[in-house]
Amino acid sequence: MKYRKFGRTNILMPVFSCGGMRFQHSWEHLRIGEIPEDNQENLEKTVMKAYNSGINHFETARGYGTSEIQLGQALRHLPREDILIQTKIAPTADIEEFKSKLEKSFLNLQIDYADFIALHGINDRESYTNALNCLSVLEEWRHDGRIKFIGFSTHGPTDLIIKTIKSGRFDYVNLHYYFIFQDNFEALRAAEEADLGVLIISPNDKGGKLYKPPVKLKGLTAPLTPMQFNDLFCLADPAIKTLTIGANKPEDFEEHLAVLDSIDESGGVSDDTYLSIADKLRAELERVLGCNWLNCCCMRLPDYKETPNEINIPVILRLYNLAKGLNMTEYGKMRYNLLGNGGTWFPGNNAEKAKKEKNAIIELCKKNGFPDPDRIPDILIEAHEMFSDKKK
User: What integer pLDDT is reported at residue 297 of this predicted model?
Assistant: First the structure.
C-alpha cells in the first residue's frame, strides 16, 4: 500500500480506503442478531482483505443502515491503534437529536474515540446552517478526546463546498471528483490551499458504474481497466489523498491494488499511461458529439431551480454525452432515474416534461447565453426515451 499525508491532520492515509456502503445487509437500522450470518461473514472477510492489503482506513455513516453495527463487529478483531475509523452523521437543526445520533454511532462501532467524524451531506444552505450549528457538539467531543478530526461530506454545488472549506472549521472533506465529473476542480484547489485532507466519494459507482463498464469503455482505457484509469486520474491530483472503495466482497480490491506499482513511495503517480487514455476518451467524445457541442456544454446552462419543472439540464446533458460518446447508457439510467427522488443528494427532476416546456426551455437557455438553445429540448426528450426506467 502507498500512503499520503491527509492534509493538516498529518495522518498517513492509504491511497485507497474501505467504504462501508455496499457490503451492508440492509438500509434499515436492524439489530446485530437480525443480520444473516453469511452477510456478516462476507463483510468481515472484506474488512480483513482490506487490512491485510494495508488499507487501514474504514469509513461508514449513520445513514448506511446496518453498515455501522456490522462494521463494529468486524473491526473489534483488529488492533484499534492500527486502524482509522470514520463515520458520517447528517447535521440536524435539533442539537439533542444530533447528539443522540452521534452516541448511537459510537455504540454501533464499539469505539471510545473516532479518528474522523464528518458532517454528512452539506448539500444546500439549510444543511450548511445545521452543520455549523452541530459543530459545537463535535468540537466539545474533540476537546474530550472522543474525536480526533472533524470533516464534512458533500454532494452540493462547488461554490457551497468552497464556502464550507473557507469557513476554516474543518480538517478534511469528502467530495465527488473523477474523470467523468470534474466540476469540483476549484474545490480541490481550495482544499489544497487550506491544507485539508480530501477523500473522493464513490469513484467506481457514481464515477461511472466502472465495476460493470461497457465494452467500448474497456477498449478505450486499455491496457488499464476503466477503474484503474480512474484511480490514477484521480490520484494524479496532489490535493486528493484517498479514494474510497465501496467493496461488496473481498475480491473487489484486487483491480485497485494492481495499480500500486504505478504509484511511487511518496504517493505520487509515476506512470503517465492515464494521460494518453484521458486524451483518447476526450478524442472519442469529440468524434461522436463534435467539439462545438462539447464546448457548448461547458458553458453556463440554467440551474435546475431556474428551469420549468426543475429539470436538471446540466446533469441530463452530461449523462447523454457519456451514453452517446462512450456507450455508458447503463450508468446514465442508474443516475437519471434518481432525479426527482434524490433530494439534496441528487437534486432536480428528469426530462419527462421537456416536450411540454420546450419553448420555455429554449427561451431560458437563450437568456443564459447558451449558444445552441434550440437543440436542448430535443436532446432532453431523446435522453428521457433513452434512460427512463423505474424510479430510484
Answer: 82
Residue 98, pLDDT score: 98
**pLDDT at residue 53, rounded to an integer:** 98
Separation CA 287–CA 4 (nearest Å):
37
Round to whole Å and give the CA distance between 358 and 44. Answer: 52
What distances in angstroms separate CA 114 from CA 64, 86, 141, 342, one per listed residue? 17, 6, 10, 29
Grid coordinates representing 22?
455496499
Which tens digit of pLDDT belongs to each residue from 157-191? Answer: 999 999 999 999 999 999 999 999 999 999 999 99
Residue 327 lies in a domain: yes
Residues 6+ apart with CB under 8 A from 71: 20, 43, 47, 58, 60, 108, 109
CB 102 within 8 A of CB 137: yes
Whether residues 41 and 188 fall in one domain: yes
Do 216 and 294 sit in the same domain of this protein? no
Condensed to tens digits (0 to 9), the pLDDT of residues 102-128 reads 999 999 999 999 999 999 999 999 999
- CATH number, position 99: 3.20.20.100
In angstroms, the CA 229 to CA 222 distance is: 9
Do the beta carbons of residue 281 and residue 52 sit within 8 Å? no
Number of independent structural domains in the chain: 2
Same domain, 214 and 143: yes
Residue 256 pLDDT level (bands cut at 50, 70, 90): very high
